[in-house]
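Final report, closing paragraph on structural work. Over the funding period we assembled a curated collection of sequence-structure pairs, and we close with a single example.
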Amino acid sequence: MEHKQFVLAINQICEEKGISKEKAIEIVEAALASAYKKEYGKKGQVIKVNFDEISGDIKVLQIKTIAEENDDELEDKKLEDDIAKEVTGEERELKKKFNPDKNITIKEAKKYKKDPQLDDEIEIPLPSKSDFGRIAAQTAKQVMIQKIREAEKEAIFDEFKDKEGEVVNGVVQRIEGRNVFVDIGKAVGILYPTEQIIGEQYNIGQRLKIYIIKIDKETKEACLILSRTSPDIIKKLFELEVPEIFSKTVEIKSIAREAGSRAKIAVCSNEESVDPVGSCVGQRGSRIQTIINELGGEKIDIIEWNKNISKYIQQSLSPAKIARLDINEEKRSATAYVEEDQLSLTIGKQGQNVRLAAKLTGWKIDIIGEKKKDAMERMDTKEETKSEIESKKENKEIKTTKVKEEIKKEKKIKPEKKKREIKKKKSKR
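Its predicted structure, as stored:
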């Protein structure tokens, strides 16, 4: 391959794979080094290739480390010293042994470097070759493919590591079985069946808003795990559509979602003048309708969050009306009493409404239905008991007043009787 064609090929790799030119040249050098070693080198050698992009020259170098040459007498002395120092056999094996393919003596190293020291690396020039056999060329190809894949993975990771937990625009690229591959710019993400909305159809070329869960680096290729079912996608979509949420004037407190069917969102305002529910709905429902359309028609209930748990639970069960609510704070459970005509609305289809309300509030919620007559009777009995208590109190008060009056009369009567008796006694005398 001519020098110009070679450079063009490198530039093309950089554009297609999104990697830097320096990294691409490193990959080419590694591939050439592996091919040279396969064709002309030995198994233990360390071969390095330097490629000059401007001139197209290739320099082949062998890397050797300066080490002491083995000497039987010296080895015996070292062994005795190790035994005296209680050095184990494993530690001795870890010590470097002189290998002519990897090591060079200080004396030989002086030919290539001034004032060489132990453990220094020496670059020894080797004759450059341009003709490689089929096996060497295949080895170079495999090394290049592997290195390009690794570089591509690193480039994708560097670009998207800060985008985890964000919503991005994507285009469906291909569908393999139940897995959907989505092109999101310089990378392709995968939408697994568990992260797909039930009943949602995907077509090649379709545009979607996708939530990035994480980047999986364990796979052969850098894989972006995407989602359409995560509750966080709703939060991010509201941040995009509602300026008050983006500016944190309105805050999303909790989200409960059954993807593709229904979701409940609890919101509150950090400013008294701002209506949290109204700002999320938008003028004539324009804001929320955009989000609903993006999620394939999924119903979204917006509820105003309340510190009072009783009011919060009642609002979470909307659009149903609750007649009465009993709360057990220790067990974090609530029992909602509703009229018969509100029972099905409160529970929802297959228990969906009460299930989402429980997820939203974090409380266990039981629903009990009662007839209007029973409710009225219960209210009447309450009123009766109240009237009975009041009448009893009145009777007690009347009795006490009567007793007091009688006592007063007796007190008045007694001294008058005594006076009469005294008068009678005097008259007899």
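Residues 71-75, 90-94, 379-384 have pLDDT under 50 and may be disordered. The domain at 237-372 is CATH 3.30.300.20 (GMP Synthetase; Chain A, domain 3). We thank the funder for supporting this effort.
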